[in-house]
Amino acid sequence: MMHQVEELVSRAMDVQVNAYAPYTKFMVGAAVLTKPGSIYIGCNVQGADNDDTHAEEAALCAMVAAGERHPILVVAVGALEGCAPTIIPPCGKCRQKLMEWSSLNKYDIEILLSTGIAQLSDLLPNSFGPADIGIDLAQHST
Ligand SMILES: [Zn+2]
C-alpha cells in the first residue's frame, strides 16, 4: 500500500501543473487508485461560468470513462500557481462525489491527508446518499 500511496502522490503532483485555474490561481491535481490497481488522474478546470470541475471529479470521470467503478484511495495536491503543491483534503463537493462510489460499492474509500490516511465516512459523516432519494444502487454495482 505504501508504494501505491507514493505513486498516487507522484501522479497527482505531475498532473497538478496542467490545471487550468485562471480565476483562483489555485491549481489542484488528483489521483485515484482503483481496486484492480489502475490509477486515474485529473486536474481542476475552471471557466468564466463559475462551474468549475475539481481535480478529484476529473479523476473520477476518467475512471468511469475507462469503464471502472471501484475507487479505493484518493489523493489531492494543490497550491497557488507557481508554488510547490502539498497534499490537501478534498472539498465538501468532492467528498460528496466520492461518497457516490462508496454507496455504490458498499465500502469506505480512503483519503490521503497530510496527517495520514482517513476514511471518507469520517470526513463526511451522516452523508446524503442514494437511499435519501429512494434509490437502491444494487442493480448498478458489479
Ligand atoms: Zn473539490
Structural summary, described in words:
The protein is an alpha+beta fold. The chain has a single domain (2-135), classed as Cytidine Deaminase, domain 2 (3-Layer(aba) Sandwich). It is built from four helices and six strands; from the N terminus they run H-E-E-H-E-E-H-E-E-H. It has helices at residues 2-16, 55-65, 92-105, 120-123, and strands at 26-34, 39-43, 71-80, 86-87, 110-113, 116-119. Strands 1, 2, 3, 4, 5 and 6 form a six-stranded mixed beta sheet that branches. Strand 1 and strand 2 form a beta hairpin. The model has no long low-confidence stretch (mean pLDDT 96). Zinc ion (ZN) binds at residues 54, 56, 90-91, 93-94. Zinc ion binds at residues 54, 56, 90-91, 93-94.
Sum up the structure in keywords.
alpha+beta, 6-stranded mixed β-sheet, globular
Broad structural category: alpha+beta
Q: What's the CATH architecture name? A: 3-Layer(aba) Sandwich
Annotation, overall tally of beta strands: 6
According to CATH, the fold-level topology is Cytidine Deaminase, domain 2
Give the topology string: H per helix, E per strand: HEEHEEHEEH
Low-confidence segments = none
CATH superfamily: Cytidine Deaminase, domain 2
Our measurement of the CA-to-CA distance between the termini, rounded to an integer number of angstroms, reads: 24 Å
Query: Main beta sheet: strand number and arrangement?
Result: 6 strands, mixed
- Helix percent band: 25-40%
Rg (C-alpha, Å): 15 Å
Average pLDDT number = 96
CATH class: Alpha Beta
